[in-house]
Amino acid sequence: MVEKLTPRLQKQSTFMREPLQVGLKLAATLRFLANGNSYPSLQYSFRVEASTICKFIPEVCNAIIAVYKDEVLRCPKTEEEWKEVAARFSSRWNYHNCLGAVHGKHIAMKKPPNAGSYYYNYKGLHSIVLMTVADATYKFLYVDVGAEGGASDGGTWSNCSLHDAVEENRAGVPQPEPLPNDDQPVPYHFVGDDAFALRTWMMKPFSHRSQVLREHIYSYRLSRARRVVENAFGILCHRFRCFLTTMHQHPDTINLITMCACVLHNLILIRYPHAISEVDHEDPDTLDLIPGGWRTDRHLQGLLPLTGHHTQKDAKDQRDYLSHYYMSPAGAVPW
Fold first, then answer.
1. Are 301 and 123 in contact (CB under 8 A)?
2. pLDDT digits over 144-189, tens only?
3. Which residue ranges does the record assign to the DDE Tnp4 domain (predicted)?
């Protein structure tokens, strides 16, 4: 990493002083991300003034994003790329035609000067929102960070560039295709929870009130696929514990820190795909869910359930069809 980042971070020597080494800047930044240490604490660890650390941490984060983001965190743009994502959900989670799991979290921060209630969220804290789409292997496919915590949760997703691209058929999403052992074309779609509106391209579980068996089974199958994004957030916060504190930086710096951590999250999973021990998993005999180690940590705040939103009839019909399919011989798995 030092070798790749040096062209962007190395300063010129002067007659007055030698510049800080890139390795030291990177080490201090990674320590901050991993532990959430305050700048005065880092000052004593690295023997660098806190004011200097305050300046170079955003620079290092920006350099990491510039060097690695296009390599490790790139949203699919073609039908073939989206189909590869869907194939991994099918093989790993037995949920078909899935483009990814969508979820959002609030990142707590100190109230910025003169911000009023702009960043004030429903939990009584100031925050920005991190909205992501995860693939079947806990990697982020799409990240949007920076929406103010005071915005409505439903509005946060609807203002994301990916939402607009899908709505306007600019995202390269494949045409509907039949599910395995079936002949009825079904749209490719994302999976989410009650914070998102039901659409033909966004499925979510049935309401918990009076579910019949097929609805219960479908909700379980969908939630099993959707858990990947919860676990992705869990891994992110378990490794980068700065998110478990209240961040004191300027909102623009928090955006950089968050995007940098998401890039590093993907980079680690790509280079060390088997180094995951803290995720949820199922008991092979009873199929009971065994919570991942990250669930013992403090959690980021999720988004509020969406209420009073008009649901498209086509989306309801599609979810009903899927609930019948996953209970039929064509789509059922051992229960």
1. yes
2. 999 988 776 567 888 999 999 999 999 999 999 999 999 999 999 9
3. 103-266
Considering the domain architecture, whether residues 22 and 137 belong to the same structural domain is answered as no
Contacts made by residues 245-251, CB under 8 angstroms, sequence distance 24+: 245/36, 245/108, 246/108, 246/109, 246/110, 246/125, 247/107, 247/108, 247/109, 247/110, 248/38, 248/109, 248/110, 249/109, 250/112, 251/109, 251/112, 251/119, 251/128, 251/146
* Amino acid at residue number 48: V
For residue 330, tell me if it sits in a domain: no
Count the Cβ atoms, other than its own, within 10 Å of residue 127: 25
**What is the chain's Cα-based Rg?**
22
Q: What's the pTM value of the predicted model, to 2 decimals?
A: 0.89
Question: Is residue 121, in this structure, part of any structural domain at all?
Answer: yes
Tokens of 297: 């940590």
Q: Within a domain: residue 67?
A: yes
**Element holding 129 (H helix, E strand):** strand 126-134
> Which domain-ending residue is among 52, 72, 92?
72
How many angstroms separate the CA atoms of 100 and 88, rounded?
A: 10
